[in-house]
Amino acid sequence: MITLMVACAGVSSGQEGPESLDMRMLRLVHGSPSVWFDRSMGTFDRSAYPVFVGSVPAVWAATALSSSWDSGDAGQVSLSLVGAYGSAIVLKRILKRERPYQRFASVTPREGYPGTRHLSPAASMPSGHAALASALSVSLMLAHPSPWTIGPGAVWAGGVAVSRVWLGVHYPSDVLAGSLLGAGVAVAVHAVMNY
Predict the structure, then answer these.
(1) Residue 45, domain member (yes or no)
(2) What is the distance between the alpha carbons of residues 175 and 29, in angstroms, rounded to a whole number?
(3) What is the pLDDT of residues 12-55, one digit of tens each?
(4) What domain range includes position 110?
(5) Residue 22 belongs to some domain of the structure
(6) Are 139 and 132 contacting, i.e. CB atoms less than 8 angstroms apart?
(7) N- to C-terminal Cα separation, the chain
(8) FRET pair for 98, CA 20 to 30 Å: which of 9, 35, 65, 71?
(9) Per residue in 147-191, pLDDT tens?
(10) 12 CB contacts (<8 Å, ≥6 apart)?
(11) What is the number of structural domains in the chain?
């Protein structure tokens, strides 16, 4: 996983230009002229913090209110989130990748959104939002596989990840690495706890 992230970090280390797939994808998403896309991305960004903060109490409340949830399910979801968050923070400190708006004058972060506040300048790789969204969604899917967890979870996690690129605070490779990290942590937590 770390090798993948180091390789992704090098994707856009060269000059801004057509040779960088990471930069081309960033420009495409960040510069989208679609009002519908802008509204969708803003909604995904605004939903991230409330869902991250509310998900752990919600799954523990579900164990008390529903016979289909037990403490093992809630524990797996909680550990997946903690593991994804901790792993992302450690990797950010190791990799110290600059955010795209610091490196390229053509990228301006979108102001007024929760996802553009209190950003550390050298913490682009991996995306913590993408890691948390992926860990939560995959963990819920593994705990209770159904169309009601898989479909909405995948759409929401993907939307949160793409919104980070739309905001101009991450490269596409950052969100890809974060998503893989979060999913990997969730799978590992469930595998260990269900062994």
Answers:
(1) no
(2) 13
(3) 444 444 458 999 999 999 999 899 999 999 999 999 999 999 99
(4) 55-193
(5) no
(6) no
(7) 22
(8) 35
(9) 988 999 999 999 999 999 999 999 999 999 999 999 999 999 999
(10) 20, 22, 23, 26, 100, 103, 171, 173
(11) 1
